[in-house]
């Protein structure tokens, strides 16, 4: 297995996720500033616009990489990410903010291209290990991104965006000079048309077991996206925290997630199986989302950390388990297709979640004056937003319980969920 190309791919995905993480604690304060005078609804729409563009363009970038090669697509996607962040940093109007997020979303949908590169340079025996780099990059990016965003915001609220743009530009230069192309003239990708992501999604939904897994995964990501979109606004007005404080909070959540997904999840799956972990994760996540509105200065930081740690544990137990169940829901010859479908489902959920959060916050806020900005969040608005996410997670738990009852007895843990005939 080639080490150097995989390292470049790891850095590429890591920087993408660092950039995404930087935005989480900083963007609400940036948009709410006097320069833009925007509403909390705008925050949700900005998060949603990024994920919506990823949903649309991730399969397009993947197909372009089949036709023109992985290296140029990754290179130009990094340039686009850099441009998007610089536009955010220099933005003076709301349309510039949306333009920056849309450009970053379009070119940030390069995860499928990165995974295709890994598939090109690894043997079947090492494929899972290579793909694990993507998961590691996700975890570490979510740890360092919010912390970097919070720390750099102390030197100016736009500084984190300039840093992320410079980082992406430096990575583009590194990739250009160090990453070899893998799609040669005789590569199968040049001679056969890959199935479209939407047709794969339609085909997947026709398989009941996989459809259940994807539906549960979709609900998890929607709830998580509502939480990440609303949490910084919540701590801003309930605790008086700034971007730096929220950066540390998200770093704390990310560290817990990285420890579980990077070190413990394999052992836990061997001990209990995927389905019990999804059930446990759904319950923990539901309870934490329900409890968030009851935290505040009177309960102290310790209770907030306890609640944050709980949803970090719940999400970290369930998400990788669901991805494994999705993989085991189809035959060995369909692994690439179901991986792409799972990504599309996650991208759609990351667009839906912030949109729901934006709608709920906008309809339930307590405002002063006619500007529509969020001057305080009422208890009602807090409960509406976070309890909606909790209700979504409760639905995910009920679907998981039904799925376990209907299928798990016939398809034990660690075995393929499909029959030989189906594969």
Structure in words:
This protein is mostly helical. It has 2 domains: 1-184, Growth Hormone, Chain: A (Up-down Bundle); 195-423, MFS general substrate transporter like domains (Growth Hormone, Chain: A, Up-down Bundle). Helices cover 78% and strands 0% of the residues. The chain is built from 15 helices and no strands. The protein has helices at residues 3-32, 40-68, 70-90, 94-107, 111-121, 127-152, 159-178, 188-191, 197-205, 208-238, 243-272, 274-291, 301-328, 335-364, 379-408. Helix 12 (274-291) runs antiparallel to helix 13 (301-328). The radius of gyration is 21 Å and the shape is globular. The two termini are 28 Å apart. Residues 192-196, 364-377 and 413-423 have low confidence and may be disordered.
CATH architecture classification name of the largest domain: Up-down Bundle
Give the overall pLDDT as a whole number: 76
Topology-level CATH name of the largest domain = Growth Hormone, Chain: A
Count of runs of 4 or more consecutive helical residues: 15
The outline comes out as globular
Rg, Cα atoms, Å: 21 Å
